[in-house]
Each structure stands twice: as structure tokens, then as C-alpha cells.
Design a protein that fits this description.
single chain; 242 residues; alpha/beta; eight-stranded mixed sheet; 7 helices
Length: 242
């Protein structure tokens, strides 16, 4: 099967530099999925959060204002200088514990091993090629402490007839010109989980016909590994919101 064309790092940077604050207009279909993700991510108990693709800082602001403890830290990463500037301005009230970093777009995350206990990425992995998605999640696994959670949200394929039709149309547009849809296309995140990690929670949330796969990953414990070896499979909660 032919791999889809994806925007290069330079093309993605140029697009999102120009898109700027208009990215927040996407909240009409993103917010419900983000609500589900944050409820399952249990960020209230987190001490250090990293976010790949922080955009305008809207999610980071919500985390710092509503979810994280007063001692928790936040590190956000983005390929777009415009997005970094917007996020830094938005997060000024938390300047002492919130940092935003400009990256090259490569999957490597400039954090030491076992640095954070929550790793978030929302509507970013669907921009990347399949090999880069896998590489980014391996990096996430590297920087997470034992017991940390991998918390993801991405455009995915529809499950009802209208949403299936819309996702097919979106995929067709992306195949012709990725720039027209911001470089994003529907993915199935679960297939990219790093070795040694399981899907602890998965839900598909649809708003206005656009569907998001919400996924929380956890490192396989010895007891879980034993269940899998016996063919019982990992414990996993699934759901769907249309």
C-alpha cells in the first residue's frame, strides 16, 4: 500500500506560521475529545507534563489553570516560531514553571530519560509520516517515568455513515494536496503503540462529523505481560461518542 505524502518539516512550519492563532478555531470539533482525554489522563496527579506540538498554548493554558497542581511543570514543543511566540505569551502567568521550546520538527524530544509522568500530543501525529509517528512515540516512551501515561488525540476514521463519508473526503483531499487540510489526515493511533506499551483506554469522539481517536497508553506491567502471554490480552477500556 502506497504511503501518503506528508508535509515536510519546512512545509509544516511555513503553514502553521501563516495559520497562527486561527488554529484555535478548530476547537469546535477538538474540545469534546480533549475533555475526554484530560479526564482519563488524570493530570491532577501529574508532576511534570510534556506536550509535543503545543500550538497556540490553548491546551497548556487549560492544564495549568484547571488541572495541574501548583508545583507541576510543563514543557511544550513546536516546530513553528509563530506558535512558540503565541504559546509563550499565553503562558506568561506560569512563566516560572512553564517552558516552550522551538524544535526542528524531527521526532527527537530534547528531554532526558524519565523526565515526565504525562506525555501529551493532540492533533499532531496525524501530520507525520508513519515512521515518524513511531519514532515520536518511542521518544515519548523514553522520556516518561515508570508508571507515566502516554496521552494522545488524533483525527481518525468515521464510524457512522456521515462520519465515514467525511473522513473519506478528507483523505481524498489530503492525497491530492495535504496543505488544504493543514497536512493532517485520519490515523489509527493504536497501531503505532511502542513495544512494551498497551492501550489502556481508547475512545472515538465525533463532533460535526469529524472523529478523533482518544488514546491513553501505559507501559506493560509484569502482570499484564503474563496475561498477554496466556492469550488473555491486556485490560482496555473502549468507548465511542457520536
Amino acid at each position: 500500500m502506497k504511503k501518503p505524502y506528508v508535509l515536510s518539516h519546512e512545509e509544516a512550519r511555513a503553514f502553521y506560521d501563516a495559520f497562527g492563532s486561527k488554529q484555535d478555531l478548530q476547537r469546535f470539533y477538538e474540545d469534546r475529545a480533549i475533555d475526554v482525554l484530560l479526564d482519563d489522563a488524570l493530570c491532577e496527579s501529574a508532576s511534570a507534563v510534556a506536550e509535543l506540538g503545543c500550538g497556540t498554548g490553548r491546551l497548556a493554558e487549560r492544564l495549568l489553570r484547571e488541572r495541574l497542581s501548583a508545583r507541576a511543570t510543563y514543557d511544550g514543543f513546536d516546530v513553528s516560531p509563530t506558535m512558540v511566540r503565541l504559546a509563550e505569551a499565553r503562558l506568561k502567568p506560569w512563566a516560572g514553571r512553564a517552558r516552550v521550546h522551538l524544535t526542528s520538527g524531527a521526532p527527537a524530544i530534547p528531554l532526558a530519560d524519565s523526565t515526565c509522568d504525562r506525555f501529551l500530543s493532540t492533533y499532531v501525529l496525524d501530520l507525520l509520516g508513519e515512521d515518524e509517528v513511531r519514532a515520536a512515540l518511542l521518544e515519548a516512551a523514553r522520556v516518561l517515568v515508570p508508571g507515566g501515561l502516554l496521552c494522545l488525540a488524533s483525527l481518525t476514521f468515521g464510524e457512522s455513515l456521515p462520519s465515514r463519508m467525511l473522513s473519506r473526503l478528507w483523505t481524498a483531499v489530503h492525497s491530492r494536496s495535504p496543505r488544504l487540510v493543514g497536512g493532517c489526515r485520519p490515523l489509527r493511533l493504536a497501531q503505532f503503540m511502542p513495544p512494551g506499551w498497551l492501550v489502556a483506554y481508547r475512545e472515538v469522539v465525533c463532533s460535526f462529523g469529524l472523529c478523533t481517536e482518544v488514546l491513553t497508553g501505559a507501559r506493560v506491567s509484569r502482570s499484564s505481560a503474563g496475561r498477554e502471554a496466556r492469550g488473555e490480552g491486556p485490560a482496555k477500556k473502549e468507548g465511542s461518542h457520536a
